[in-house]
Amino acid sequence: MDFKVKAGSKLTGEVQLPGDKSISHRSIMCAALAEGTSVINGFLEGEDCLATLDAFSKMGVSINRTDNKVVVQGVGLNGLKEPDSELYLGNSGTSMRLMSGILSGQKFPTVLTGDSSLSSRPMERIISPLKLMGSRISSSSEGNPPIEIQPSLGLNSLSYELPIASAQIKSCLMFAGLYANGPVTVIEHLETRNHTELMFQQFGIAVEVNETGKARKIKVTPPKSFLATDINIPADFSSASFFILAALITPESELLIKNVGINKTRVGFLHALRHMGANIELKNETNSFEPTADILVKTSNLKGITLNTRLVANMIDEMPAFFIAAALAEGTTKVKDAKELRAKESDRLQAMSEVLEAFGAKFHLNGDGIVINGLGKDGVFNPSKINSHGDHRIAMASSIASLRAKGETIITDCNNVNTSFPNFIDVSREAGINIVET
């Protein structure tokens, strides 16, 4: 699937985006292991989250899905059953890494596989600490999927300091901690998204979070069981980032994005854009277990910045959109300590440098970051043919960037947009973007 985009007129009105991908994954996992029935509203019907749902169905969990509501009959911590076949997780790194923690505590063997993109992503980062707990887990000799997990002989208590800022490693170990013989503590020096901490608390799982100096310690005490609960999932901030960008860079735009999750560990992109001079206002803020707000965005003249390195881990999924904003700002934007971008669905540093080059932006790529010389408020991109490398966020960021191109732009290999934002085309058109599938 390719996208074809033409520069359009101002973006106005309101848009409603699909549910948060990270929260959707975690809601299924916790609901499946709970005692009783959980109702999940706003579940993201994207391919990644459906991969998680399908995997638990294959392990004996009854899951009924209608529209954006999912009803899960939990089987309890020790109620999962051995699947009849390998668990295929498509493109979903979140599914594979978090489920590896859960499956390390089971009394049956499992094999986790994925598509070609997922099969090239690093898994040693979770395998090493899981082995320290006593998990019988292995991968290919290169440290990539498939992952094989043998029946558990028991998991040990662990205190583990994250070598890199990663919510997926942290969450993997927290889920493994549900099956340990004592507390599991994860120590991080840069706060990563905290959806697992909040989800555990929502289900009544004992989690202690202590911050001392620059260290943040998350301690999970293994429960004997925990009860089902209902979950309301807000719109995905990472999906919202593309429409925030669209309204900022399209002249005379004013767009309201409804009911978006504004978890403090996810909104680094907002802080960065406001530092650049973006006109963004939060309305109707709520304080549920995951805070939400309507986000009002108006066209803005952006200025280049040196991105605070502490924001990088917070906005890792929004970096492609941020690079486009930087390319249309006045002055120079510098990003460093972003090496983790090279280990996502694609090497996003390299892929986005190719996007910027195709559009005619000026930049210098470094090993762990990039320096972008902005074209300014009146700058326009060259129309081009962009290779998204099968990365959903590269595809969507490039589509939005095309709003400031001189003519028609084609973005290729966009199928994986369905992993996180299956109705991206429909919502884009609703907002006033001239985009079609080809």
Gist?
The protein is of the alpha+beta class and 438 residues long. The chain has 12 helices and 23 strands. A 4-stranded mixed beta sheet has the order 21-22-1-23.
Give a structural overview.
With 438 residues, the chain is α+β, with helices and mostly antiparallel strands. It has two domains: 3-17 and 234-437, Enolpyruvate transferase domain (UDP-n-acetylglucosamine1-carboxyvinyl-transferase, Chain, Alpha-beta prism); 21-143 and 152-222, Enolpyruvate transferase domain (UDP-n-acetylglucosamine1-carboxyvinyl-transferase, Chain). It is 28% helix and 25% strand. The strands form six sheets. A four-stranded mixed β-sheet has the order 21-22-1-23. It has a four-stranded mixed β-sheet with strand order 2-15-17-16. α2 runs parallel beside α3 (93-103). The longest helix is centred in the first third of the chain and has 13 residues, at 21-33. The N and C termini lie close together (6 Å).
